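your task:
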Amino acid sequence: MPEHRNPSSAHVDAPTESPDSHDHECLRLLSRSPHPYQHRNLDRFSLDGNYPRSATSFPAVSREPTPTSDSGTEADDEHFLKGLPAPRTRAHKGLRGRNELLSGTSTPLPSPALLEEDPRRLSYTPSSLRKDSTPGKDARVLLDSSWRTKRTKEVVRRLTEVVILGSLGAVVQANEHVRPVLSKWRIELYVSLGSMASLVLLYPLRLVVWGYQRRSSSRKLPLSVPSAFDPAPLLYPPAITLLVASLISVDNEAILLPNIVLVLCSLPSSLFPAPFNNEVCNPVHWAISCVPLFLSGPAGLMQKASSSNNANSQQAVVTPETAILFYPLHRYFCQTLHTLTTTSLLPAELQLLSVTLINVLLLSSSPQATILKAMLWVGGLQILVLCSQVVKWGIALARVPKWRFRRAASQSKRNSSFLYTVMSWRRVRHDLFHAPMDTSSCSSCEAFDDPEDSDDIRSAPPKGHRLYKSGTFDGADSTGFEGSQMPGLDVAAQEARVSLAEAKTVFGHFRRHTLPAIENIPKKSHTHTPSGRKKRSASSSVRAFFSMTYEQATTRKWVYAFYIYACIFAAVFLPHKLAGVKEFVQYNALHGYEPVGWALGYLFGDLPWFRMEVLSRNLERWICLPSRLDEDHVEALQLGWVQYLRQVRFGEANTRLVLSAYFLFVIACGLLVVFRLSPIYEVDTRRKVFHFMMVAMFLPSIYIDPTFVGLALSIVLALFLLLDLLRASQLPPLSKPLAYFLAPYVDGRDLRGPVVVSHIFLLIGCAIPLWLSLASLPRTGTGFLEGWEVPTREVSMVSGVVCVGLGDAAASLIGRRYGHRKWLWGGGKSLEGSVAFALAVFAGLVAAQLWLRIGGWSSPGAGPDPWGVTFRKTGVCASMASLTEAVLTGGNDNVIVPVVLWTCVKSLGV
């Protein structure tokens, strides 16, 4: 056990240690243990001066789990924790027991951030300061200065985040297309921003009032806001929601006001007073979120929306009756997402995910967004309702170890016949041979030769109990007594013949195993271990399966798996009253065309033999065939050479087939490279291969057919979520192969909860900028392809691929090998890695701009900017993204940074 000492006692022992030994201790502290499960009993370092110290030579280190990284790059540094179980996130002292996400009504204190704490720097005193130091005083000064320095660095980091988001807002407001839209909704914007600022400024006053009401004469409560609180839920969900909505509202002004309401809904609950004890819905928060709707008036939203939808009448409009229910929808949806993902997502990520899904549900109007809504909301909601309980049963059944199941009956008992049941062999032996009815082993009675006691001896021992040989305590061949020698008895007793009752008195109860019997054997406790420690009791959901055999459990797993697969198939394909995915897509995205026939024509409609088969079999009413373009129509369109090849020479459908084959080829090559590099390179290098695969697939193909790539990314995202559900449910036959395939590529962020988020975040980071660009551009198309063509292209479409595929990979690879200078606030980010990130993003954006001009996609009305202006704008965007990636807290950089880069590129018009 560690000894608790004060600083003075620690410094009394300090002179006995040499500086060399202390430096050796520091080196050993920084080394990685080859036995991660054999930790020493070391307590957490305390900042109040009374810190514990281990009795060993090691300095005191933290017992807290390794702090989870907020970004993907820093999560790569935790690859050595793959074999360890997911660490339990523990709140700071004084805040334990609080729900950091949804509560805030019990106390106005903010939730602590998951910071990159380095307790090793505070757990020991450098030898240079310990030689001529006063015991106790210098330790307190060192601790105070270290804590003050750390606090200053964190404050600088938070202020840098605020400056970045403020600069991004100024860039968006300066856009000539966004400024008129913001001026139309300026009253609602000013009121929402003023409400946010007032709540933040009143927060310290609420802390003072809260501390004054709970003052105590024996202990004073701290009235200052700690510097370790998490600002991400206060900064990123409101800022990103408002900035993205402002840029998309250029095409549909009705999007802005609902997102203003969602901005107020996504504010942390701790900023609002709670008159009632309700952890989910706060009436004060609900009322403040509805203030912009009251200012706009009952018909204001509809009037402004109708005035902005003249160009495209298919855009979705949210009614005031629906917008007023955003707050309870958002709060309960956050609670549902938290239940599903537990600790896999941070609070800011949950808020952003909820706001995004609500926008997809209520404001999606394009065919691609409608298909994504069908897969996430219609199919996902049905699977969640039908399979949630079965998934819980499957997970509980998988948690039961094999040895805890009930043992199956023996083969003889299982295969017993009716004749054996009527007349057993014991009864036959007793009737024919006058044998006793007892089935005890005859070797147990060989030690007793007295005929008077033979009957009692043969019938007394219980079934399965054994007696032991004398002189053998190892139990190797202890099947009976030899002669009259018995362990534990004196010579006189060994010479005498004893009865079975006397032997049981000496030995206690006979045991089934082969260990020798001793006196006073303690009874096996079901609640405590032999050392006296209380056993960890299994949950009721797990104990329900203890009465099953292993074969029955395996059968039950397959039944659960068959039910889940049947529900997935029914939710996607079978028609029913609740409108499955297929019917929803047919009537809301494809204008009534059957999805299977539409997909066949969308991919194979330009093949001559396919068109001939469709026409000869009279299937054109089911399979949609694209029309051919004549030369006069092509000349009027003034297409670029890539569009000319796509629409005239190859055909749009054939181009999609070529792109699909190209995607499969890149994936096959990438997997081959990964498998070849697995025994040579580390995990981080193998993970970055997938980043370069995304660049190779999507950087040249997004401009060719952006709607097809957006549809493919939507389908792959739904497939990833479905496969991860099957993996987490641990049901056969797909769960184990998926887990084995993903295990070599997971990082510390994936070990936080049940969801493996690395590949999902990688896909979302590449897809979100493309989806946002498609939502902000006008649509064209005729016939069954109405709304499936975008006449213009822009660099912001590929900003996610450039940021995630090039910038993040370059920062990780260069920063790991050449990063020696850390940022002011510490952490895993280096200046060299940030410079590599900026240079890679700059090169990727310039390459995208070059491909945009070479391919002939530039808008003919306004020519492209000169290369000097393009380089300046691209440098600003790359620097902004690099600085955001370095300073980001409370969110994954594979999602936040691409959105920031898209906002900057879209606003500056790169």
Notes: Residues 137-173 form the longest helix (37 residues). The CA atoms of residues 44 and 62 lie 4 Å apart. The mean pLDDT is 74. The two ends are 63 Å apart (CA to CA).
